[in-house]
Structure formats: C-alpha cells, structure tokens
Amino acid sequence: EMEEDSKEFSLLLSNEQNEKVAISFNQGMLSFDRTVSGVTDFNSEFPAVHQVTMGDLTIRNIKVFVDLAS
C-alpha cells in the first residue's frame, strides 16, 4: 500500500526462474521494465523499459493483474 503523499514507489514481480517485471514511479516518470520478464523473443520491442512522464498527474492507486500464463 502506498502512502497518500508518496512521491515515488517501486513494485517488483518475480518468480523462481528469476524472471522479473518492475513497475516504478520516480521524479514524475512511470516506468515498466520487462527486459527480463521471461520469453521475450516473439517481438523485438517487448523486452524494454517503457516510460511515460506523468506531468502534474497524481497516482492514487495502482492495480496489477497477473494472469496464469504470466
């Protein structure tokens, strides 16, 4: 759970095969890192760190859905 006035956070999802996905928010930038998320060779753009500048938006909560295949 995030504190209401948090300016940053990070969430790491991992498994026993050392596959990882990281979601973070720091200095107004939301990042989604799936460079070591498992099988990624089906698309050259998949294993990357995707980022978006949030500007003046405030993140109040994050919902993460993980399916059985993940």
Task: Explain this structure.
This protein has 70 residues and is mainly β. Helix content is 0%, strand content 33%. The protein has a four-stranded antiparallel beta sheet, with no helix packed on it.
Rounded to the nearest angstrom, the radius of gyration is 13 Å
SSE run: EEEE
Helix content: under 10%
Mean pLDDT: 85
Low-confidence stretches: none
Largest sheet: spatial strand order = 1-2-3-4
| Most strands sheet | 4 strands, antiparallel
Q: What shape does the CA trace take?
A: globular
Q: In percent, how much strand structure appears in the residues?
A: 25-35%
| Count of extended strands | 4
Q: What class, by secondary structure content?
A: mainly beta
Termini distance? 22 Å
Helical run tally: 0
Supply database-style keywords.
70 residues; mainly beta; 4-stranded antiparallel β-sheet
Topology, element by element:
Blueprint: E1 9-14, E2 20-26, E3 29-33, E4 49-53
Antiparallel strand pairs: 1-2, 2-3, 3-4
